[in-house]
Design a protein that fits this description.
Helix content: 25-40%
CATH topology of the domain at 3-103 and 203-329: Protocatechuate 4,5-dioxygenase, Chain B
Protein name: Extradiol ring-cleavage dioxygenase
Strand content: 15-25%
Keywords: Dioxygenase, Oxidoreductase
Number of strands: 12
Domain Extradiol ring-cleavage dioxygenase class III enzyme subunit B: 77-302
Oligomer: single chain
Strand order of the largest sheet: 8-5-9-4-10-1-12-11
GO molecular function, one term: oxidoreductase activity, acting on single donors with incorporation of molecular oxygen, incorporation of two atoms of oxygen
InterPro entries: 3MGA_Dioxygenase, Xdiol_dOase_suB
Structural class: alpha/beta
Radius of gyration: 19 Å
Length: 330
Amino acid sequence: MARIVSGIATSHTPLLTLGAAQWIHRANIDYENPKLNLSDGRLIPYADLLAEVGPRYAGEIDVASLSLKEQACNAELDKLAAALAEANPDAVVIIGDDQAELFNGANQPAFAIYHGAIAHTIDKLQDPATPDWLRTVRRGYMLDRVHELKCAPELALQLITGLIDEDIDVAACDRVENPLKQGFGHAYGFVVKRLFGDRQIPIVPVLLNTYFGPNVPSARRCHDIGRAIRRVVESWPDDLRVTVVASGGLSHFVVDEPLDRKILAALENRDADFLRNLPRGALNSGSSEILNWVTAAGALEGLQVRSCEYLPLRRTPAGTGVGAGFVTWF
């Protein structure tokens, strides 16, 4: 019988692909962002955020301080990679979100599973004017050229048909027609490049629409889907070891450390009610990727959190940045 033997949740912020001295490039984007998302649902420009909270984090955004956080994040990612090697899965289900990399407004499913044999990443380095720091990011995401990610189509088809039988309407796709224009994005490439190492583990890409209304699923729906994923995997008679990975999050682009820590505590304590009732206002923009974690939590209810680490990666005086989380289940 197939079994979910382990789980991982990891942030995939560009900061995890850059040296600390380069984080200023992302800070500059924050300064110009007119719609920084707060957990109460408001979208405000940086000037308004600074006026509201003050420069309370100015003392922790020097390069020396950020370098310590960079080192700590890389140490946590190394631990996740070691945990994946320990689990030794036959397949990895990666729950991520597509950000106009594979899908667009012409077709934006709320929930999709890819069942092709190969998932092609999109080449996002075709423009010679791309700045060096962004080239570094895209290499870290496997978006520097078209990469071929080995998939597990039989497991993917089992998930699709099983979820349909569970009354979950899932979109199905089996190919990338032109990866120079559309393809798999950073949520998947980051996990494969940073955590897999030299191992060629087949993946099942699960794509949640967390970013783009009007069809973003609720936290409750995502948790239900995760639970159904577990039931379908465990109903398959094949002897298969499966790891579930959530890619993305936590809060960004304004770090909400209290919210992030409550989410991590809910994962550790198996507090499904908290996760299922996260308000939509707290799940906008980058913070919407928390839904990937909620989905994974549903699939991993049969396991225990083994490790859980958190680093608030603030990069501006008003506290914009990313709440970086790193969790394992066994």
